[in-house]
């Protein structure tokens, strides 16, 4: 089992920045590739960004590429999502998730463990 707890969400104006954190406990954090997903009201949960177990490989959805950066600190068992140039359409509940193995995936169904989510609201 891996327990994941997100933090760092909040209300920010368009153009602002937030950094989300995801603290992991339980099994060895470094054994898992990690991802960030988000779900806006009335919409399906969607992929945002993913990172390999070592942090050496990352991938972001086109909608956030160039604005969001995913990173991890395995010594601290923590995953991050730095979000810059935020837009109102980024408003959603953001979830971190863990998938066993070293290679990341953008497929939601392949993630075994999920946090409870943190709300990000971007005002125009």
SSE order, one letter for each helix or strand: EEEEEEEEEEE
The count of helical stretches stands at 0
Number of strands: 11
User: What Rg is obtained from the alpha carbons, in whole angstroms?
Assistant: 13 Å
Portion of residues in helices? under 10%
* Biggest sheet descriptor: 7 strands, mixed
List low-confidence stretches: none
Oligomer category: single chain
Query: Strand share of the residues?
Result: over 45%
Distance linking N and C termini: 40 Å
Topology overview:
Blueprint: E1 2-7, E2 10-13, E3 18-26, E4 32-39, E5 46-51, E6 58-60, E7 68-73, E8 78-83, E9 92-100, E10 113-114, E11 118-123
Parallel strand pairs: 2-11
Antiparallel strand pairs: 1-3, 3-8, 4-5, 4-9, 5-6, 7-8, 9-10, 9-11
Structure characterization notes:
It is a single chain. It is built from no helices and eleven strands. It is an all-beta fold. The strands form two sheets. Strands 2, 4, 5, 6, 9, 10 and 11 form a seven-stranded mixed β-sheet that branches. The protein has a four-stranded antiparallel β-sheet with strand order 1-3-8-7, with no helix packed on it. It is globular and about 40 Å long.
């Amino acid at each position: 089992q891996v327990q994941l707890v997100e933090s760092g969400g909040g209300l920010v104006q368009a153009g602002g920045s937030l950094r989300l954190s995801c603290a992991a406990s339980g099994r060895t954090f470094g054994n898992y590739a990690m991802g960030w997903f988000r779900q806006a009201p009335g919409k399906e949960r969607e992929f945002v960004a993913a990172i390999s177990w070592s942090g050496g490989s990352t991938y972001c959805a086109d909608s956030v590429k160039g604005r969001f950066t995913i990173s991890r600190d395995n010594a601290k068992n923590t995953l991050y999502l730095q979000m810059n140039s935020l837009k109102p359409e980024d408003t959603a509940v953001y979830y971190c998730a863990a998938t066993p193995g070293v290679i990341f995936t953008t497929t939601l169904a392949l993630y075994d463990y999920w946090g409870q989510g943190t709300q990000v609201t971007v005002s125009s």
